[in-house]
Design goal:
Oligomer: heterodimer
Distance between the termini of chain B: 25 Å
Largest sheet of chain B: none
Number of domains of chain A: 2
Number of domains of chain B: 1
CATH class of the largest domain in chain A: Alpha Beta
Number of strands of chain B: 0
Strand order of the largest sheet of chain A: 5-6-7-3-8-9
Strand content of chain A: 25-35%
CATH superfamily of the largest domain in chain A: P-loop containing nucleotide triphosphate hydrolases
Structural class of chain B: mainly alpha
Number of helices of chain B: 10
Shape of chain B: globular
Distance between the termini of chain A: 38 Å
Helix content of chain A: 25-40%
Largest interface: A-B, 27 and 22 residues
Largest sheet of chain A: 6 strands, mixed
Helix content of chain B: over 70%
CATH topology of the largest domain in chain A: Rossmann fold
Radius of gyration of chain B: 18 Å
CATH architecture of the largest domain in chain A: 3-Layer(aba) Sandwich
Number of helices of chain A: 10
Strand content of chain B: under 5%
Order of helices and strands of chain A: EEEHEHEHHHEHEHEEHEEEHEH
Shape of chain A: elongated
Order of helices and strands of chain B: HHHHHHHHHH
Chain lengths: 302, 245
């Protein structure tokens, strides 16, 4: 069952095309990642899905509603965490939940939400006194107040330290495990790879790839790398005839062997036959970052 | 309606946590009351048309409260709410834009009435302030003045690019009016030329309307017309200019 259907969405801001042509569907109960560099059109796409922007072309349906004409009914049934959103600095945590609860026809009690999201001790703290991670957890709690069927999370972990990021990832999985559909918008490729069941990679207002993270990585072909530091007298080109090797790259003294199959074993055997045992030799798996690079010729983060 | 009520209540609590706002809307009018009350007392004097100084001043202090909120409070807070993304967060709830703005307006009306109650009750208890001859009419007039002035505050919040700019312009509009309109000091001390000029200032009409009703002289029709016209024009313009982000 499709929870979201987007067909040929287009959105212009004056002369700037934010979204050129985007189509995708989201299934019930999945974490659907929308990834791409800043300015790719991710946020505009989400803003159209929640009825904040009027599309210039194409059609959008969320839970069977047209977000433009049925915004109020739709928002009763979705939860939203937005980039650049806030509550007043002097508002207390419990006041925010208490107030937002009156905006919805159907809500879950907010005290257990505070417990669940580790904010019970902060219930009387004002918004300005919360850490970045606590603010994000409060926004998640606000997004879950109405027991939504679909939860939109836009750049959830931007600005968080690594520990808070990992805690937030667990939180997103917990939301999905409650049977909710999650739309996860992020410019962090590792986040999408870690969390998403399926990923749409967006660049310059278009979907350039859409699959499971593993499917996208497998599509790269040679998807493993072995990396080590060279030494004098060693010629990396000696490794080229090995089974599974597709490419050999040198970055200064670093040698990166691209390939597939039993690449690591083959490389190690060949090196040991030359009595060369690099201590820093390790194997790296290709990731979504590599997928983006191979699709667009650019890295996501500049 | 429950949402608007809850939001109004929580917004009022937020206002009480804002020291500068509390000072200018609630404390400063009391300071003026006690300062000039101590100096001039409340004995009727021909200089003030047979009214006591406190009787003559309190309608002006109410006008001052309304003007402060409308021009230096509301536009700045709404500008900050927009800049910080607070309006954006509210916008993606099922709550209508009208409900969000309605809650803001009712918050500030309650705040103005609270400030009014403080200054009126203190005046009555300490200086024997004259009770208005038509209290309900005074209350209705205060609400009319609030709605009219707050619509200008919304307009300011809409047309000014930032909260800081709204604050600067709001103060530039408010302070000359404060001293020329009779809100902070009686117009009897001003030269005739300035009194004539002050007829162009909306706050003068708030003072005139409230004084007239307080002293049992009935509704100042000019003031009512000016305030309603200002409300209509500012509301039409702010509907076109108000921005949520």
């Amino acid at each position: 069952m499709n929870v979201i259907e987007v067909q040929h969405l287009r959105k212009q801001y004056g002369a700037v095309t934010a979204v050129a042509d985007i189509s995708f569907t989201v299934k019930k109960g999945e974490i659907f990642g929308i990834v791409g560099p800043n300015g790719a059109g991710k946020t505009t796409t989400v803003e159209t899905l929640i009825g904040l922007r009027k599309p210039d072309g194409g059609t959008v349906q969320v839970l069977g509603f047209n977000p433009q004409t049925d915004a109020s009914e739709l928002r009763q049934r979705i939860g939203i965490q937005l980039q650049q959103a806030a509550i007043p600095n002097r508002m207390k945590v419990w006041e925010a939940l208490d107030m937002y609860a009156t905006f919805y026809d159907h809500t879950v009690p907010w005290e257990p939400l505070l417990e669940q999201w580790g904010l019970a001790e902060k219930r009387n703290a004002t918004f300005s006194k919360l850490s970045g991670g606590q603010k994000q957890r409060l926004f998640i709690a606000l997004a879950l107040l109405n027991d939504p069927e679909v939860v939109f999370l836009d750049e959830l972990t931007t600005g968080l330290d690594p520990q808070a990021r990992h805690a937030t990832w667990d939180a997103v999985r917990a939301i999905r495990d409650q049977g909710k559909t999650v739309i996860l918008v992020t410019h962090f490729m590792d986040e999408a790879q870690e969390l998403a069941d399926r990923v749409a990679i967006i660049d310059k207002g278009q979907v350039v790839a859409l699959d499971t993270p593993q499917g996208l990585i497998d599509g790269l072909g040679g998807n493993n790398r072995v990396r080590f530091t060279s030494q004098n007298g060693f010629n990396p080109e000696d490794l080229r005839p090995l089974s599974g090797v597709t490419q050999i790259e040198q970055q200064g003294k670093q040698v990166i062997v691209h390939g597939n199959g039993a690449l690591l074993v083959n490389v190690v055997l060949a090196l040991s036959q030359q009595n060369f045992i690099p201590t820093d030799l390790h194997s790296e798996r290709a990731n979504l970052e590599d997928v983006f690079l191979s699709l667009t010729g650019r890295t996501v983060r500049v | 309606m429950q949402a608007v009520g809850k939001m109004t209540w929580i917004e009022l609590k937020l206002k009480m946590r804002e020291p500068i706002g509390v000072f200018f809307t609630l404390v400063f009018p009391l300071l003026l009351l006690f300062l000039f009350g101590t100096i001039y007392g409340n004995e009727p004097t021909p200089f003030l048309g047979g009214h006591g100084s406190v009787d003559n001043s309190v309608p002006g202090y109410i006008a001052m409260i309304i003007g402060t909120i409308a021009l230096t409070g509301l536009p700045v807070v709404l500008g900050e709410y927009r800049e910080q993304g607070i309006l954006r967060r509210l916008q993606v709830t099922p709550l209508s834009s009208t409900a969000v703005l309605g809650a803001q307006i009712s918050t500030y009306i309650v705040l103005a009435l609270f400030g009014t109650a403080l200054v009126v009750l203190s005046g009555m208890m300490v200086y024997g302030l004259a009770v208005p001859s038509a209290p309900i009419a005074v209350l209705l007039a205060i609400i009319l003045c609030c709605i009219s002035f707050f619509s200008v505050g919304f307009l300011l919040a809409g047309v000014m690019p930032t909260a800081n700019a709204a604050q600067a312009v709001g103060m530039a509009l408010f302070f000359p009016m404060l001293f020329l309109s009779g809100a902070a000091m009686p117009q009897e001390v001003l030269p005739d030329a300035l009194v004539n000029f002050s007829q162009l200032l909306p706050l003068t009409h708030v003072v005139n309307l409230l004084k007239g009703l307080w002293f049992g002289e009935g509704w100042d029709v000019t003031a009512v017309v000016v305030l309603i016209l200002m409300f209509i024009i500012a509301t039409i313009l702010s509907a076109k200019t108000f921005r949520w982000e």
